[in-house]
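Subject: design request, 200 residues
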């Protein structure tokens, strides 16, 4: 399998409306998950570019669909987080609609990296994401993020519990521990991206 050069990534564009989406060709992988789960931080550590995606202690930092381009045919996508209570209703509704359209219609979307804080595994909205992806037969790779907050035994326990919990959803779900802070699991997630981004 070819290994992609993630540090050659470049910001492509930010999208707030369906009409602004870049052409639906080639392959892309979206980073999804609850607000504050560590999506933007994961993108930065995978690419090795610190300021690529904006991160924040405050939930709700990423407010647009941000597209990053590896080459003319391959993209990584940073999505706004879900489950952030303080977002006004009208904005929440707008995002739900846009993200639902994106997830159901996007042909170039080859897989989803679902980020879940290892201390708060699989909340209701995460499970909704698993259910929805089953209907499109879209693979999901779960990163149990902030693994640096737990010791080895607790990481292993959550990993096994999460693997068991996702089994009933569909067979295309994989799980790994991850930390942007100490680089746990960095090679494993890159391998998954390499695999998905070959599907053109
Ligand atoms: N300990 C630890 N903290 C992390 C890790 N990754 C991210 N964080 C922290 O978690 C907070 C949220 O990180 P972001 O990457 O901005 O999260 P996000 O999922 O993009 O958040 P939204 O854009 O609001 O949806 C920040 O304070 C990060 O420093 C990690 O691996 N370990
Ligand atoms: Mg973000």
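Subject: RE: design request

Done. Sequence follows.
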């Amino acid at each position: 399998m070819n290994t992609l050069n993630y540090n050659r990534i470049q910001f492509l564009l930010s999208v707030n409306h369906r009409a602004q989406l870049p052409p639906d060709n080639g392959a892309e992988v979206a980073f999804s998950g609850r607000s504050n789960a560590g999506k933007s931080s994961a993108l930065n550590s995978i690419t090795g570019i610190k300021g690529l995606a904006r991160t924040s202690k405050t939930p709700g930092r990423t407010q647009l669909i941000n597209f990053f381009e590896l080459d003319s045919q391959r993209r990584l996508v940073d999505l706004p987080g879900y489950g952030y209570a303080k977002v006004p209703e009208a904005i929440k509704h707008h995002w739900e609609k846009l993200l639902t359209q994106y997830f159901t219609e996007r042909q170039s979307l080859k897989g989803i990296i679902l980020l879940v804080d290892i201390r708060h595994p699989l909340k209701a909205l995460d499970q909704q994401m698993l259910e929805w992806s089953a209907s499109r037969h879209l693979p999901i790779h779960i990163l149990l993020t902030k693994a640096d907050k737990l010791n080895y035994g607790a990481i292993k326990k959550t990993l096994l519990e999460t693997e068991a919990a996702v089994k009933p959803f569909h067979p295309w779900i994989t799980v790994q521990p991850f930390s942007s802070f100490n680089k746990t699991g960095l090679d494993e997630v890159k391998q998954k991206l390499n695999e998905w981004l070959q599907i053109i």
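The pocket of magnesium ion (ligand 2) is lined by residues 39-40, 61-62, 78 (CB under 6 Å).
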